[in-house]
Design brief:
Elements (H helix, E strand, L loop, with lengths): L1 E5 L4 H12 L3 E6 L2 H10 L2 E4 L5 H9 L3 E4 L9 H19 L5 E7 L27 H7 L6 E7 L2 E3 L6 H12 L2 E4 L5 E6 H14 L4 E5 L2 E5 H12 L3 E4 L4 H5 L2 H5 L8 H7 L8 H6 L6
Parallel strand pairs: 1-2, 1-4, 2-3, 4-5, 5-6, 6-10, 7-9, 8-12
Antiparallel strand pairs: 9-11
Helix pairs in contact: 1-7, 3-4, 6-8
């Protein structure tokens, strides 16, 4: 299949492009810069110039493809309202172009905020509804297109999609440890995160595009609950630093914007996902990646 991929040179998107190529698909990657275009061409992927705010480029990409994988997001922590607006507009533009075609529309979504006090499951709907909600309610908006002849597949990603070169949450925690001279965890460190290796996440995206029915929610989760204290201890081992508890009220000052996330439990099950697609993660665990230098090289 010819597959239009937004976020094609991002952390997850670049792995998805590799996965698509290895499986014999033809990725068409959205590129907003010369460097992104060159990276895609070097891999052997086709390129469409544009960005999330260029809705015409998104429509052209969707119209030219047999499937769409939407992974891009502005992730502007300084202006979350703008990120939410952009995300909703992009999903709407892509969904409108795909309406009535029956083509796959794989949309990335977070696991945070899905369930309270227990691991989220694939049956749990997102509480984010409407333009003013988290990510502009894009998950529910995308699922609305399933009733309009689009094979929408939501892929919710663990808060840590890890691996060598990751610039996400664990990278920020590692940077904070270097700067502070200690590897910290919040409170008693009992908060926990789900995790998945980047290669396993990319394979799930491809399998979902190929096989998941319309309206499916998938969970890219290999490890259901990794205690945040264990994450801090692994970072401490990798950097040769002491491990300390940080008071919850000091988390923002110690870790920066990631402190609030590190104090929160964000866990989910992937039992239904594995059963549906026969997906079995094979990559290293989060703690193995940390201890073997994925974040300290």
């Amino acid at each position: 299949m010819r597959v239009f991929v937004t976020g094609a040179t991002g952390w997850i998107g670049s792995a998805v492009v590799d996965e698509l190529l290895s499986a014999g698909h033809e990725p068409l990657g959205l590129a907003r810069s010369d460097a992104a275009e060159e990276a895609l061409k070097t891999k052997g992927a086709a390129v469409l110039r544009g960005d999330l705010d260029d809705l015409d480029s998104l429509r052209r990409g969707a119209a030219a493809a047999d499937a769409v994988i939407h992974l891009a997001n502005k992730h502007d922590w300084g202006d979350p309202a703008e990120s939410d607006r952009s995300e909703r507009a992009a999903v709407g533009a892509l969904g409108d172009e795909l309406t009535g075609t029956g083509r796959p529309f794989v949309v990335a979504a977070p696991l945070s905020g899905i369930a309270e006090g227990r691991p989220a499951t694939e049956d749990d709907p997102s509480p984010a509804v409407g333009p003013g909600s988290d990510r502009g309610g894009s998950e529910n908006l995308a699922l609305d297109y399933a009733a309009r002849g689009v094979r929408t597949v939501i892929t919710r990603f663990a808060p840590s999609v890890h691996g060598r070169g990751d610039w996400g949450f664990v990278n920020f925690l590692t940077t904070a440890a270097r700067e502070r001279g200690v590897s910290g965890y919040v409170g008693d460190g009992s908060a926990a995160w789900s995790a998945v290796h980047r290669a396993d996440a990319a394979r799930l995206v491809r399998l979902g595009m190929e096989h998941a029915p319309a309206g499916t929610r998938l969970h890219a989760v290999a490890e259901e609950a990794v205690p945040t204290r264990a994450v801090a201890e692994a970072i401490g081992d990798a950097l040769g630093l002491p491990v300390v508890s940080v008071e919850p009220g000091d988390a923002g000052g110690h870790f920066g914007f990631v402190g609030g996330f590190f104090a929160s439990t964000m866990t989910a099950s992937s039992v239904a996902t594995r059963r549906l697609l026969s997906w079995e993660p094979t990559g290293p665990t989060l703690l193995t990646d940390i201890r073997t230098g994925a974040y300290t090289a």
